[in-house]
Each structure stands twice: as C-alpha cells, then as structure tokens.
C-alpha cells in the first residue's frame, strides 16, 4: 500500500490571507512547521496548492523543504487532491489542513495502526458523533483511499463536496467503508476548544499557545488542555470564535 501525506495549502484565504506563510514561530510559518512535523512519519509529503501566482511562494517553500508541490484548481479542491495523489500512484493518503499548527503526529500514527485493507476512510470522532475534521480542535488528520476520492469526483459536481474533499465519503456510509476512532477522554466531550487558524485573532492566540507549548515542552495535547482549563479567558475567546466560524 503506497501512502503519502498531502497538505492542503493556499495563501489566498479570504478571512486571513497569507496565514500559512506569515511568521508564526521563530520566523517560520505554519506551513513550514507542519511540513517538518509530518516528515516524522517518514512518508512522501506533497503540498497541494493552486496555480494562482500568489502560491508561487508556497512552491518555493516546498523546494526549500525538499518536499513535492502539486499545483491545481483553486476552486475544485477535490480534483486538486486527486491529481496530487496520482503523481506517485498512491493508494492511500493522509489529508492535512495547513491551518492547524497543533497537528498531532501521534494521532496520525493511530490512524495508520488501525487502517485495514478493506477501508476507504478512517478518522477520529468526538463524543457527539462529529468527525474530527468538522471540529475546531486542529489536532487531527484523516486517511482516505484515493480510489474513493476518484469515485466522489465521478459522481458529484456539488460545490460543497468539491471544496471539502472528504465530506461526501463519510456522509455516504452506504457507498464507502468507514472506520471511526474515539477521541481521547480529555477531548471527547469538549466543544469549547479551538486550535485552528482562520482569523487574525486565531493567529495571535495560536502564536501565544505555540510559544507556551515549546517553552513548557508539552509532549501531548492533554497538557495543553489542562493549561487552558486553568486559563478560562482563553476558552472564552475560543468559544466566541467557534460560534463565529461554524464548520
């Protein structure tokens, strides 16, 4: 089974342009931090960006970090993702979003350990039944079979499913073989934690927390969550932004 990690990334975010490349920690952008993190899996890494000239900088960063860069449609993200997967004839890919600086490689390894040949898709799910990718945690990735994505591309032109790469797969359990992993207890029933970056306020908050993560050498996300519970002012801001940026 040929497996790769694909990071979905573009600079042209409407709410916060350039968020993936602007200095985030020690002059490194979020995308650069993510690339270095997922390299720990020792798998091929592809950054799937757009053909828009604004994303030339993304391609240059990939060259600097010695990872592959695929450039495709800005609007049809599913097609871009499938074509990126085909560049190495991969059977299964991890999908990583470039606005999640706290992505956990440990949770990605859990997906790999639980993967079976019969599956089309695997991801974590919270205690409310929400797929991890529809939460605001920002800790998780997902694994999907490329042939499943190709099937989606052939059966729907709905803009929702072309923009959100895997939604059609996990919304159609009658068509695909799905497997859900349960989130750890400290996250399972939380709906007040937001560790993803969509806005300038998100960016500043995540910068502060990432600095703390490095200074305190937090090795797991539960340490971060314990800290948040002792600093409710952060959770108050997160709850406000969860409401304002419903997934």
Protein topology:
Blueprint: E1 3-8, H1 30-38, E2 45-50, H2 56-65, E3 68-72, H3 77-86, E4 92-97, H4 105-114, E5 121-125, E6 142-145, H5 146-155, H6 159-163, H7 167-170, E7 178-182, H8 185-188, H9 200-216, H10 221-229, H11 232-244
Descriptive account of the structure:
The protein is α/β, with parallel strands linked by helices and 247 residues long. It is 41% helix and 15% strand. The chain has 11 helices and 7 strands. Strand 1, helix 1 and strand 2 form a beta-alpha-beta unit. Helix 3 (77-86) crosses helix 5 (146-155).
Q: How many alpha or pi helices? A: 11
Helix content: 40-55%
Gyration radius, rounded = 17 Å
Show unreliable segments: none
* Overall pLDDT metric: 96
Q: How many strands, what sense, and barrel or not for the largest sheet?
A: 7 strands, mixed
Largest beta sheet: what is the strand line-up?
3-2-1-4-6-5-7
Distance between the termini: 32 Å
The general outline is globular
Oligomer: single chain
What string, H for helix and E for strand, traces the elements in order? EHEHEHEHEEHHHEHHHH
The beta-strand count equals 7
Category by helix and strand content:
alpha/beta
Q: How much strand?
A: 5-15%
């Amino acid at each position: 089974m040929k497996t790769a990690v694909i990071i979905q990334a573009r600079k042209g975010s409407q709410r916060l342009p350039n968020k993936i490349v602007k200095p985030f920690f020690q002059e490194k952008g979020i995308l650069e931090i993510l690339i270095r993190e997922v390299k720990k899996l020792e798998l091929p890494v592809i950054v799937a960006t757009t053909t828009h000239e604004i994303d030339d900088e993304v391609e240059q960063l990939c060259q600097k970090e010695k990872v592959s860069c695929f450039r495709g449609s800005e609007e049809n993200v599913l097609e871009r993702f499938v074509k990126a997967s085909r560049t190495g004839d991969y059977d299964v890919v991890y999908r990583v979003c470039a606005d999640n600086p706290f992505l956990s490689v440990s949770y990605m390894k859990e997906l790999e350990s639980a993967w079976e040949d019969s599956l089309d898709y695997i991801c974590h799910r919270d205690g409310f039944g929400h797929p991890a990718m529809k939460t605001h945690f920002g800790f998780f990735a997902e694994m999907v079979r490329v042939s499943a994505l190709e099937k989606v591309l052939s059966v729907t032109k709905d803009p929702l499913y072309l923009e959100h790469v895997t939604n059609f797969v996990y919304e159609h359990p009658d068509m695909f073989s799905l497997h859900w992993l349960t989130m750890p207890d400290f996250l399972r029933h939380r709906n007040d934690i937001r560790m993803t970056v969509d806005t300038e306020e998100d960016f500043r908050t995540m910068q502060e927390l990432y600095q703390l993560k490095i200074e305190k050498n937090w090795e797991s996300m539960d340490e971060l969550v314990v800290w948040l519970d002792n600093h409710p002012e952060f959770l108050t801001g997160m709850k406000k932004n969860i409401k304002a940026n419903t997934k």
